[in-house]
């Protein structure tokens, strides 16, 4: 990366910003501090998640119906509540002018399912691994992104 280059960064939610607890919002795993530092450096964040709002949820599990399927809205609200401004939600707001691809354009993606993304294993917080934000922050500094 060129020093001082501003990036568009796609951010997954469950397992990346919080522990995996879908349909609920998971526990804090340290994402807020690093995401705010990225914003302070001028980078733009796009929420890129499998969560969606679905009124006609097909599951028979009562827990999933408890919020009437407002899963994406709850994730967006998590960012708002934590003072993290999103550049886009599920899409890059400028890409419609140069592509019809449904894939969200970003220059970097942070996702617990990405090959090489550092993960933490803490059975006290979650039975599933989640992004290790201390290691992500180190990687971002090494690459002159932070």
Overall geometric form: globular
Q: H/E series, N to C?
A: EHEHHEEEEH
Average pLDDT confidence is 91
> Which topology does CATH recognise?
Rossmann fold
The CATH superfamily name is HAD superfamily/HAD-like
Number of beta strands: 6
**The biggest beta sheet, please?**
4 strands, parallel
Q: Unreliable runs, pLDDT <50, ≥5 residues?
A: none
CA-CA gap between termini = 11 Å
Name the CATH architecture.
Answer: 3-Layer(aba) Sandwich
CATH class annotation = Alpha Beta
The structural domain count equals 1
Rounded to the nearest angstrom, the radius of gyration is: 16 Å
Q: What's the number of helices?
A: 4
Helix content: 10-25%
Physical arrangement of strands within the biggest beta sheet: 3-2-1-4
Structural class computed from helices and strand pairing: alpha/beta
Query: Percent of residues in beta strands?
Result: 5-15%
């Amino acid at each position: 990366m060129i020093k001082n280059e501003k990036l568009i960064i796609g951010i997954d939610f469950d397992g990346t910003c919080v522990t995996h607890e879908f349909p609920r919002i998971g526990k804090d795993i340290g994402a807020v501090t690093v995401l705010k530092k990225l914003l302070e450096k001028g980078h733009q964040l796009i929420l890129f998640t499998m969560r969606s709002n679905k009124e006609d949820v097909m599951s028979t599990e009562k827990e999933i119906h408890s919020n009437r399927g407002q899963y994406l809205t709850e994730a967006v609200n998590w960012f708002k509540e934590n003072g993290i401004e999103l550049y886009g939600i599920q899409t890059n707001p400028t890409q419609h002018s140069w592509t019809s691809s449904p894939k969200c354009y970003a220059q970097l993606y942070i996702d617990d399912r990405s090959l090489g993304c550092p993960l933490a294993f803490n059975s006290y917080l979650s039975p599933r691994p989640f992004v290790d934000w201390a290691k992500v922050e180190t990687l971002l500094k090494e690459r002159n992104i932070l």
